[in-house]
């Protein structure tokens, strides 16, 4: 099966980092880890070509070559994802779509012409899709409430990437987060019980990248890297040895919750493994807003003290910040700016509160009659 994997464009904005990438002579920040994992799960006698639309457009030769087009993306990529589905169907191609956007909101992709909807986590639903193809079925919807054992996930097909196009590469150790933030769809998509790969499995992925010639930054795209602290510490002990043996070819960045500050030993291990930064959802310094959104982990200790502890460990903080919580008092933006300056946070990423599909916030606003229809 000649399979064309397409990753849609991100709209221009803060999160697309065009100016920063231009300074590095790179096309995109990180590659589509989900799609190259899909390529690893699908039958390996299929042929694959990958087009990341942040890097380049699909060529006429690739459209002609493809028997099957597979797309994946996040909600922010929905416009281009739907446009790519329509273009593929205009060209008479069979189209399958999956990923977090389609899992949360499958109807627009179906309306755009997608033949197959591959929902939830692909370790379970991709084999269902392949079986349907083998039976000659020309359409289908494949979903599951089961969470896969990620220790069985194969090494992503990093060989499909143009490595030179990216500022950093991506790997994953765990899925899921133990917390219950009202606005977050991670716990809806991947659950509140973090599932981790084995250290040996993770190090095999690093070996793959090492032998492909990559040197530089790697992003651990875990929803909350420290969600399972026991397994993370086991990993870091082995990663530290691997880094020493390979003369530290990689530096790491990841996402974690603020309670990282309560574990000095864990922070020390991260620094020893050459972690240099961590993205943390600070959201707001307003305690009333944190209570409304059920971000209780940010209320257990003073935020400024926790941030200072993490910074002093040697980790730089990239902070996610949100305005628009229910009951928010006037001047929230000014308070956030003052807080960022006081905390010495070098990278602060601001956003408006979004009611993502199927989150607790979504259901609450729906019950209160405050949601507009999905366009």
Describe the 3D structure.
The protein has 375 residues and is an alpha/beta fold. Helix content is 37%, strand content 18%. The protein contains 15 helices and 14 strands. It has helices spanning 18-24, 33-41, 60-65, 78-90, 100-104, 107-112, 122-134, 186-190, 199-211, 229-245, 264-272, 287-292, 303-313, 332-343, 360-367, and strands at 2-7, 47-52, 68-72, 94-98, 116-118, 140-142, 169-171, 174-175, 195-196, 216-220, 250-255, 275-283, 316-323, 347-352. The strands form three sheets. The protein has a six-stranded parallel sheet with strand order 2-1-3-4-5-6, sandwiched between helices. Strands 7-10-11-12-13-14 form a six-stranded parallel sheet. Helix 10 runs parallel beside helix 11. It is globular, with a radius of gyration of 21 Å. The model has no long low-confidence stretch (mean pLDDT 96).
Give the topology, please:
Layout: E1 2-7, H1 18-24, H2 33-41, E2 47-52, H3 60-65, E3 68-72, H4 78-90, E4 94-98, H5 100-104, H6 107-112, E5 116-118, H7 122-134, E6 140-142, E7 169-171, E8 174-175, H8 186-190, E9 195-196, H9 199-211, E10 216-220, H10 229-245, E11 250-255, H11 264-272, E12 275-283, H12 287-292, H13 303-313, E13 316-323, H14 332-343, E14 347-352, H15 360-367
Parallel strand pairs: 1-2, 1-3, 3-4, 4-5, 5-6, 7-10, 10-11, 11-12, 12-13, 13-14
Antiparallel strand pairs: 8-9
Helix pairs in contact: 9-10, 10-11
